Amino acid sequence: MLLNVIERGPEEIIPEQVGRPPIVLLHGLFGRARNLGFFQRRLARTRRTLAIDLRNHGDSPHGLMDYNVMAADLLETLAHHNALPATLVGHSMGGKVAMTLALSRPGMVHSLLVADIPPAHTGHGQFGLGEQMLRVSFPPFLNRAGADRLLQHYIANTDVRALMLQNIEVGENPHWTIGLREIVDSMPNVESWPYIPEGYTYPGPTLFLAGGNSPYIRREHYATMRRLFPCYRLELIEHAGHWLHVEHPQKFAELLENFTEST
């Protein structure tokens, strides 16, 4: 499946950057490529960048999901755009997609940054949210303010509601733009971690970023992280939760830029 891509790069050729791998940005569950625009614009001042809508998200096609299928989507899309090997940067679900591709096709991944997700069954805690969203009854017309009021009945958290609002087509005949039914049906796979055959590793540079207040990456995951990604290192963003790039965008951008420049 070819995925929707937002591509940005420097306005002029920068000789010292010629030949460096493109940087690929992958969003999390219920997100979309344009959510990462702040980071993409910064990176694109000197590097070719591609922000990608994963299947069922943004403007990409819909279909049932698991990480092997989503990694295959990503590989096909990057090959189509002549963007391999690439540096992969993924948050949450996007991080699992990036790790799956790195482990299955390590030669296609130059380096890897994974934001607040381990290579393990985690559970995103969003199965109930997806079920609730399927029950939303849209009126014949809806503007942005009306959509926000409608979702307040289902989502109390302001940040989560703002994320979901981006997935509604407002105006006449409002509707979800994402493959919500497919996401809900695939949620056990999204919360899981694919089977990785014995001996599969990704030997390239790998950085895990964890929110200091997030429960996702835990000490019991470290041995698996070391086995699968022997060159990994871990950095904490203090006082950040799972949405560390939203809560502390400047710190996240600094760590991201340092990593992509050093590799």
TrEMBL record:
Pfam families: Abhydrolase_6 (PF12697). GO terms for molecular function: hydrolase activity. The keyword Hydrolase applies. InterPro entries: AB_hydrolase_1, AB_hydrolase_fold, Epox_hydrolase-like. It comes from the Bacteria. Gene3D superfamilies: alpha/beta hydrolase. The keyword Nucleotide-binding does not apply. Keywords: Hydrolase. This is Alpha/beta fold hydrolase. It comes from Komagataeibacter rhaeticus.
